[in-house]
Amino acid sequence: MLALAVVAEEATPAELQIDRTYVPDNCKVTAQNGDRLQVHYTGKLWTNGNKFDSSLDRGQPLPVTLGARQVITGWEEGLQGMCQGEKRTLTIPSTKAYGSRGFGNVIPPNSALVFDVELVKLDAQSPREEL
């Protein structure tokens, strides 16, 4: 008699997943739309974990104005509320990344992505109450 083994595959992410991997003890201001950020990141394909880009390899964080549509939607949403020095892992469905078009020959169409991000610098652009 032949026995079949069923291996459960994890379903491709359909929603943005935010995992806070490090939160500094002192967090007085959090990122919101309009703030200027500098972010270190490493991006990997969700399917196989292959790295496709990293600011760490260049030794320079990426400057981003949050809410200005300079980055993919998964980043716009996933960086909200971060503290300077905080680290997160963002698991981003293709609908909040590059969708059916992909990105060049680096990111295939309909790819979910995983980014390890660190908010290196937060320059708040509007007054707000400290936490």
Description:
The protein is mainly beta. The protein has one domain (17-123): Chitinase A, domain 3 (Roll), CATH 3.10.50. The chain is 8% helix and 31% strand. It contains 2 helices and 6 strands. The chain has helices spanning 55-58, 73-78; strands spanning 17-22, 36-45, 51-54, 62-65, 87-92, 113-123. Strands 1, 2, 3, 4, 5 and 6 form a 6-stranded antiparallel beta sheet that branches. A hairpin with a 5-residue loop joins strand 2 (36-45) and strand 3 (51-54). This is peptidylprolyl isomerase. It catalyses: [protein]-peptidylproline (omega=180) = [protein]-peptidylproline (omega=0). InterPro entries: FKBP2/11, PPIase_dom_sf, PPIase_FKBP_dom.
